[in-house]
Amino acid sequence: MELTWHGHSTWYVTVGDTSLLIDPFFDNPATSLDPSDVETPDYVLLTHGHADHIAHAGEFDGATVVGTPELTGYVEAEMGVDDTIGMNIGGTVELGDAFVTMVRADHTNGINTGYEHEAGMPGGYMISDAVPTQESDAESTTFYHAGDTGLMTDMREIFGAYFEPDAAALPVGDHFTMGPWQGAVAADWLGVDHAFPMHYNTFPAIEIDVRDFEREVKAAGSRAEVHALDGDESFTLE
């Protein structure tokens, strides 16, 4: 599984022959790319409707947009997206070589910064190369994109216990989401081997020293290795 961080919460994930772009927002200081520079993914996954997560969802002709039915309906009507898949919390869909499960996130979900539309529940995604079951599968690989969220016990009681993610992209910019110490607790609860900070240093309210997250992960007793990627940098998850 190949993971590429394009700044903020924007990730390009490749599972086998299937490509997924999560929360496309390229107007952030960590990336040098425009949407036109990015290879069109097979699927665009949206965690929620805030402008810094859906800004460029309509700029990938031929991609299928995935999100809550409320949000996919919005991008069809307002962004001219032709092909969508509506799903919801707890559901798993098979997208090419990937199995994608939408999980809960603790956040709000008005569409765009005016918050004039509701977009259903905000969420995160578990992305795996095998169908999730109750049985532990050491051969499978799972990446958790938390979306925008606060710390919640689901991360310990459900996500870590049953999905057994190998890696997690966690928002750590504080103010609107978890900050460094809560993100570190999340990494510990999830039991991941790899933790990737995201949703930080995009604008003043979420500016942090990302080394604080690294220190907090150690203080939490987590086994996770922290990877503070540069914008447009990739990591191979095996």
TrEMBL record:
Entry annotated with the keyword Hydrolase: yes
Domain (Metallo-beta-lactamase) ranges: 7-199
Domain of life according to the entry: Archaea
GO MF annotations in UniProt: hydrolase activity
UniProt keyword annotations, A-Z: Hydrolase
Similarity section: Belongs to the UPF0173 family.
PANTHER family per UniProt: UPF0173 METAL-DEPENDENT HYDROLASE MJ1163, UPF0173 METAL-DEPENDENT HYDROLASE MJ1163-RELATED
Descriptive protein name: UPF0173 metal-dependent hydrolase C498_12293
Lineage of the organism: Archaea, Methanobacteriati, Methanobacteriota, Stenosarchaea group, Halobacteria
